[in-house]
TrEMBL record:
Source organism of the structure: Corynebacterium stercoris
UniProt keyword list: Signal
Stated name of the protein: Alkaline phosphatase D family protein
PROSITE patterns the record matches: TAT
Signal peptide: 1-31
Domain Phospholipase D N-terminal: from-to ranges: 55-156
């Protein structure tokens, strides 16, 4: 397969969103809910913005006195992502209290280099807590001297221990470039610029590693770059660069700080410590591939850990006054292989999802925490998933296969299937460690909020310890990656889907909400005594400017559980 790359190919981007007016992108005439067929609209195209700030700006990892700000410089047409080309470019960065930069509070200098794919990370210190700032970059030398980046808006965390009445976070995951347009990001950006949301928690699958046409749902509406499955450092850099040409995604990054973690597709499907389902021997050494993917991730994402050759790690925590501590877990790098692929599961199976070092760090973090809530950034579903009649009713069995394909697709006749976790890639496959964590949360009297992505569908669960509700789990739908009905080529809605959802509720006593046919993101509003979870849904991911609407809202209250 070809591994060539040209600027012309790179320019074939469909990134259309609110604020990207006049791009000439064709739209679909039907609603996704009524027309389950592949898109027939022409592949969308647009020209990139002028050099050198092609990929916008971003911020992330807010602390009470610091935040990361990010940009990428494209010095010339040959310096596309992954090219390892282009002259170093010096810039001045500025942070101000106003978008006109009349009150600059911090400034400094940085230089882009091809060794870092011309990405720039600045850890700005000495900021005031709980304060909104605006930032920009200005080229200081070379052919683009004087050029100013797009405007960025960010916000620092409240001070540790300070009384905080509310935090409102967007929760998102699973954005597949070919499957649909990023309308969810456009809506998220609008809320960020309006000051309605404090930050975005992104829980993995920011990119997908597949080749063109391989995992496009009802698409493709636009094509991956490079065309082949990504394996090398150049490949991963190029794929990130492709994604970051989308105006909706760039605007969402510019509108507020993001706290991010990877799941599997930032590397390859169903990754674990020493391998992945979607890594084959002819693709070279897995750990070499993983290290390349991780390096590109650190380069392109606004994270404080930016040196993959050092002792850096992606798991970390953030405190927001006395209200909530957000603990980000890495559920891929240290996990054991799934039980099915590693042999038959035995009673007392003690496979680890976190690895011993991270597990001990997590418990120490929880023990030290003094906030009213503990939010856990969690890339795969924590709560049990039992399928019950969904599996045994022939009419609904395809939904069971879609939710548990890692076992049922190739082992549909396993006699003891009801006794096994049906998706061993989730916490169900690591139940020993899950029970250890729940017992610790209960022992410490913590109120956990598990924030989850990965499964491309909407869920809400109560989290129980010894039969008592101690917290909840909120699972967001995918931004665009195929959900259950997309994967099956079925209409959204319909009586069979409703039957499957009813079966899911019957089989899972802790389940409060389930929707298998939506796309979008979630909002989580945390106050001292309750958590309000909202699911926002994109009308049609095949339309570039699709509306995004609030759909379901649930409240979990301390000492009462879900109250509505």
């Amino acid at each position: 397969m070809t591994r060539s790359f040209t600027r012309r190919g790179f320019l074939r981007s469909s990134a259309v969103a609110a604020g990207a007016v006049g791009t000439g992108v064709a739209t679909q005439a039907w609603a996704q809910s009524s027309q389950p067929v592949a898109s027939t609209a022409p592949l969308a195209e647009m020209e990139l913005p002028p050099l050198p700030f092609v990929h916008g700006v971003a911020s992330g990892d807010p602390l009470p006195d610091a935040v990361i700000i990010w940009t990428r410089i494209t010095p010339d047409d040959a310096s596309f992502p992954g090219s390892n080309a282009g002259a170093p470019t010096p810039v001045r960065w500025e942070i101000a209290l106003d978008p006109e930069f009349a009150h600059v509070v911090q400034s400094g200098h940085a230089t882009s280099t091809p060794e870092r794919d011309h990405t720039i990370h600045v850890d700005v210190r000495g900021l005031a807590a709980a304060t909104t700032y605006f930032y920009r970059f200005v080229v200081t030398q070379g052919p683009h001297a004087g050029t100013v980046s797009p405007l960025g808006r960010t916000k620092t965390a409240p001070g540790v221990g300070v009384n905080v009445g509310k935090q409102k976070w967007a929760v998102a995951s699973c954005a597949n470039w070919e499957s649909g347009f990023f309308s969810a990001y456009a809506d998220l950006a609008e809320r960020g610029w309006a000051g309605d949301v404090d930050l975005t928690v992104f829980l993995g699958d920011y990119i997908y590693e597949y080749a063109r046409y391989e995992y496009a749902g009802f698409g493709p509406v636009r094509l991956h770059e490079p065309a082949h499955e990504i394996v090398t450092l150049q490949d991963y850099r190029t794929r990130y660069g492709r994604y970051r040409t989308d105006p909706a995604l760039k605007n969402a990054h510019a509108a507020m700080p993001w706290i991010v973690v990877w799941d599997d597709h930032e590397i390859a499907n169903n990754t674990w410590r020493d391998g992945a389902d979607n890594h084959q021997p002819h693709e070279g050494d897995y750990l070499t591939r993983r290290d390349a993917a991780v390096r590109a991730y650190y380069e392109w994402m606004p994270v404080r850990v930016a040196d993959p050759s050092g002792e850096g790690r992606i798991y970390r925590s953030f405190t927001f006054g006395d209200l909530v501590e957000l603990t980000i877990m890495d559920l891929r790098t240290f996990r054991d292989v799934e039980f099915w692929r590693g042999g038959s599961r035995q009673p007392g199976d003690a496979r680890t999802m976190l690895g011993s070092e991270q597990y001990n760090w997590l418990i120490d973090t929880l023990e030290r925490s003094r906030t009213r809530w503990n939010a856990l950034g969690n890339s795969v579903m924590f709560s049990p998933m039992r399928l019950g009649a969904v599996l045994h009713n022939p009419a609904t069995r395809p939904f069971a296969k879609a939710l548990s394909s890692n076992i049922l697709s190739s082992h549909a006749n396993v006699p003891t299937i009801d006794e096994m976790p049906l998706n061993g890639d989730q916490w169900d496959g690591y139940d020993f460690e899950r029970r250890r964590l729940i017992n610790t949360l209960g022992r410490l009297g913590k109120s956990p909020i598990f924030l989850t992505g990965d499964i491309h569908t909407e869920w809400a669960h109560s989290v129980l310890h010894d039969g008592t509700e101690i917290g909840c789990e909120v699972v967001c739908a995918s931004v665009t990656a195929p959900n259950v009905t997309d994967s099956l080529g079925l209409r959204a809605g319909g009586p069979v889907l409703a039957t499957a959802v009813n079966y899911m509720h019957a089989a899972n006593p802790t389940l409060r909400h389930c929707a298998l046919d939506t796309h979008g993101y979630s909002l989580v509003t945390i106050t001292p005594d309750e958590v309000v979870a909202e699911w926002l849904r994109v009308d049609n991911i095949l339309e570039p400017l699709s509306p995004v609407r609030p759909a379901v809202a649930l409240t979990w209250r301390k000492d009462a559980g879900f109250v509505r």
